Amino acid sequence: MKEQNPVILFPTPSFFPAQTGGPDNTCYWLTKALTSAGVKTIISSTDFGLPTQIKRGEWLNTDYGRIKYTHNLVHYMPIKTIWYGFLQMSKVNLIHLTMITYPASWLTALINHFTYRKQIVWSSRGDLDAYMLKRSPRKKKFVLWLINNVLGKEKIWFHATCEAEVGYIRDQFGDVKIVQITNYMDIPQRVVQPKEKEILFLGRIDKKKGIENLVEAVSQSEIFLNSDFRIVIGGDEKHPYGQELINLVASQNLQHKIIFVGHVSGIEKEKLLARAHFLIMPSHTENFGIVVTEALAQGTPAIASTGTPWKALADHQAGFWIDNDPESIKRILERVLSMSPAEYASYQENALRLVKEEFSMDANIGKWIAFYNFLSMEGKPAPEGLIAQ
After folding, report:
1. Sites in the chain below the pLDDT cut of 50
2. Strands (DSSP E) along 192-343, which ranges?
3. Which of 100, 226, 285, 304 could serve as 310's disulfide partner, Cβ 3.0–4.6 Å?
């Protein structure tokens, strides 16, 4: 009997071509590869961060599935997204949720629990690390209580991208079912761009990112201060923490060495990644950090903190995996500046090889399809190597 691929519903807070965070792209790359492989995907999303030219309020057939973007008066309570997702539940085999504490996710899970009781895959997407749980703690404690005491975890498979995230899930929900699959990406064509003397931070400007430690490291490094290199910070800085960083840079008289360029997306983002000498991600915690793969795909080596799951950078000599205190960052900046052209070229080659061999969505989509089929077909054995122990 021929195996029939499942139909999967994805209710999401936002979705490509929006660029509000990593999941906009990681979920897009997943659904695009699934669609190409013949798996039917249905996506119910808000229009948060969506370009104005994209149609709202109607089902669109795309190369990443059938999707409806809806405008909701309150992004944190997207009634339309939840409603249109509910209307599709009877047509699907599985529901894949993104973010644990976002209302579109837990309300969809609650509705499903009392109606269709479909199998759920629930991606944490960094929602359970200590930094995130400290935000709106009362609301998050309620959601965690709801999952633990009401939803019936026998119908839920949690998805983790790394070992640390497996630990976060176990800490909150105990001995639950977890699939561990890293984030893969649609490898883009390299942008032809001359390298500049820039160390790039690119992403959401947030306290968990440890950017103040990067600023402090620069202030302590005479070698960096006396070089032609500068730090470029890409991301929306128009909020209190962003202003704190701007003030910190000004107080250290570093405006000529640390440049804020605001939010970037699309081809401008690719150019920024391509021209950077190195990417740096000094986060206190990350469940993944998709910007690292985006940098590697442009031949840009990366520096990531040990609070991220990026030991592979050091293992493959495609970058560095370091503590994120100012002294450690200072030493690695000076190490990067001391590289010979031949050594740097080797790191570039290793960066491209690493992302193509380990993080290509096209090469790895079979893992997701095998897991979805395991959930949707009774009696099918669990795929080897994907189930967290």
Report:
1. 1
2. 198-202, 230-234, 258-262, 278-281, 302-305, 319-322
3. 304
Please choose, from the candidates 40, 364, 371, 374, the residue with its C-alpha nearest in 3D space to the C-alpha of residue 182. Answer: 364
- pLDDT value at residue 1: 42
CA separation (Å) from 58 to 2, 16, 22, 47, 85? 34, 16, 25, 12, 13
Q: Cα 135–293–130 angle (5° rounding)?
A: 20
At 379 the pLDDT is 73
Q: What is the pLDDT of residues 269-291, one digit of tens each?
A: 999 999 999 999 999 999 999 99
Sheet holding 65-70, edge to edge: 60-62, 65-70, 40-46, 7-12, 94-98, 119-123, 156-160, 177-180
Complete domains list, the chain, with CATH = 7-186+360-376 (3.40.50.2000), 198-358 (3.40.50.2000)
C-alpha to C-alpha distance for 13 and 24, rounded to whole angstroms = 9
R_g of the chain, CA atoms, integer Å: 21
Amino acid letter at 21?
G
* CA distance linking residue 385 with residue 368, whole number of Å: 12
pLDDT confidence of residue 3: 62
